[in-house]
């Protein structure tokens, strides 16, 4: 249920009753993410002005250079979620292991865990290209009041209770779902409030934009190569337009509005793909499906994959349903 110019805070409260687990805790959790995103946005938007650009001099578990804003964003989201004592555990792309919150307190009745990519696309920071935050929320599966375990984080994407992203672009937007459609809110930086700007977001069933790093073309599976050549053929609606920002959130957001497909296939350099299942693919897949789009690894629905490791990677194809199904058709034909 949405009203024009509704703020994110009003929307969360007004819609919490439609959320089957309603207890207000999820609303408080979404509000804490809203707050952290505003703080991170403030730093991202002035990255060029202070000495916060450049490497933090460390690397994360992925072996990727940690940009200072990566570290800043990670700290802010963890601090906000911890201080407000809303969740019982956090996993982050920037943390080797999950973080148990107040795990010694047997009275800790917090039932949600959050998995987050605090600043996705961070290699774009130094060149002033948009980046994003991605989050995924689950109910814990182990008993309340006990320390969270890895089992609470290694849940299928289909068990998510909420997921969303913040895109720090020409404007800052927060887009999320609790399983009842997808809504987008735009930040008015002058007053620090997010306003409902994109109610009930839906993927067009078809589109003519394909997003993939064609620099890796020679290394792609045959099915992906054939799909890319299909996109480039001059026939009917094709050739399509190639658009690749190098920031999943930005490519996904544009494709959801205009129609399109995003692909990060496996290759010899990334034998399981590059994107992480738990805090990139699953939350984006949840949003995609809630917006009548589709997300798979080329063969299996992303949200049906049973995770085995916190930072595991999967091949990722996501976007307009007709485009994803066409790519899957090429992948299946090569598997026969
Ligand atoms: P490449 C950013 O690191 C990211 O995880 C996604 O946001 C982005 O789409 C992809 O990797 C870019 O990877 O190898 O094409 O530079």
Produce the secondary structure layout:
Blueprint: H1 8-15, H2 25-44, E1 55-59, E2 65-67, H3 68-83, E3 87-92, E4 99-100, E5 112-120, E6 131-139, E7 162-168, E8 172-177, E9 182-188, E10 193-198, E11 209-211, H4 222-232, E12 241-242, H5 248-258, E13 261-264, H6 277-290, E14 294-296, E15 316-319, H7 321-335
Helix pairs in contact: 1-2, 2-3, 4-7
The structure holds 6-O-phosphono-alpha-D-fructofuranose.
Short overview:
This protein is an alpha+beta fold.
Q: What are the defining features of this structure?
A:
alpha+beta; Fructose-1,6-Bisphosphatase, Chain A, domain 1; 5-stranded mixed sheet; 7 helices; binds 6-O-phosphono-alpha-D-fructofuranose
Structure description:
The protein is an alpha+beta fold. The protein has two domains: 8-198, Fructose-1,6-Bisphosphatase, subunit A, domain 1 (Fructose-1,6-Bisphosphatase, Chain A, domain 1, 2-Layer Sandwich), CATH 3.30.540; 209-335, 3-Layer(aba) Sandwich (D-Maltodextrin-Binding Protein, domain 2), CATH 3.40.190.80. Helices cover 28% and strands 23% of the residues. The chain contains seven helices and 15 strands. It has helices at 8-15, 25-44, 68-83, 222-232, 248-258, 277-290, 321-335, and strands at residues 55-59, 65-67, 87-92, 99-100, 112-120, 131-139, 162-168, 172-177, 182-188, 193-198, 209-211, 241-242, 261-264, 294-296, 316-319. The strands form three sheets. Strands 4-3-5-6-7-8-9-10 form an eight-stranded mixed β-sheet, with helices on both faces. A five-stranded mixed β-sheet has the order 12-11-13-15-14, with helices on both faces. It has a two-stranded antiparallel ribbon with strand order 1-2. The longest helix is centred in the first third of the chain and has 20 residues, at 25-44. It is globular, with a radius of gyration of 19 Å. The termini are far apart. It binds 6-O-phosphono-alpha-D-fructofuranose. 6-O-phosphono-alpha-D-fructofuranose binds at residues 120-121, 123, 213, 246-248, 274-275.
């Amino acid at each position: 249920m949405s009203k024009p110019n509704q703020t994110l805070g009003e929307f969360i409260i007004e819609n919490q009753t439609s959320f089957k687990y309603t207890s207000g805790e999820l609303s408080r959790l979404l509000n804490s993410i809203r707050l952290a995103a505003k703080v991170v946005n403030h730093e991202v938007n002035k990255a060029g002005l202070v000495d916060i650009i450049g490497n933090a001099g460390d690397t994360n578990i992925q072996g990727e250079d940690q940009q200072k804003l990566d570290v800043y964003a990670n700290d802010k989201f963890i601090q906000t979620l911890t201080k407000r004592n809303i969740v019982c555990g956090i996993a982050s792309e920037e943390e080797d292991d999950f973080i148990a919150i107040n795990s010694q307190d047997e009275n800790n009745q917090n039932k949600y865990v959050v998995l987050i990519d605090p600043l996705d696309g961070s290699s774009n920071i130094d060149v002033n290209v948009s980046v994003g935050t991605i989050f995924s929320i689950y109910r814990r599966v182990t008993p309340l009041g006990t320390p969270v375990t890895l089992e609470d984080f290694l849940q299928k994407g289909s068990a998510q209770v909420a997921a969303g992203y913040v895109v720090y672009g020409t404007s800052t937007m927060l887009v999320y779902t609790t399983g009842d459609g997808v809504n987008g809110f735009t930040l008015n930086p002058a007053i620090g409030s997010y306003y409902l700007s994109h109610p009930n977001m839906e993927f067009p069933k078809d589109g003519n934009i394909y997003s993939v790093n064609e620099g890796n073309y020679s290394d792609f599976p045959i099915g992906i190569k054939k799909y890319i050549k299909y996109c480039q053929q001059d026939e009917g609606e094709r050739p399509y337009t190639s658009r690749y920002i190098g920031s999943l959130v930005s490519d996904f957001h544009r494709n959801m509005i205009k129609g399109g497909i995003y692909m990060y296939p496996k290759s010899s350099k990334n034998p399981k793909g590059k994107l992480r299942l738990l805090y990139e693919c699953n939350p984006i897949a949840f949003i995609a499906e809630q917006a009548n789009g589709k997300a798979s690894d080329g063969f299996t629905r992303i949200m049906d994959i049973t995770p085995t490791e916190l930072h595991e990677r999967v091949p990722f194809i996501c976007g307009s349903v007709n485009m994803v199904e066409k790519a899957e058709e090429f992948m299946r034909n090569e598997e026969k």
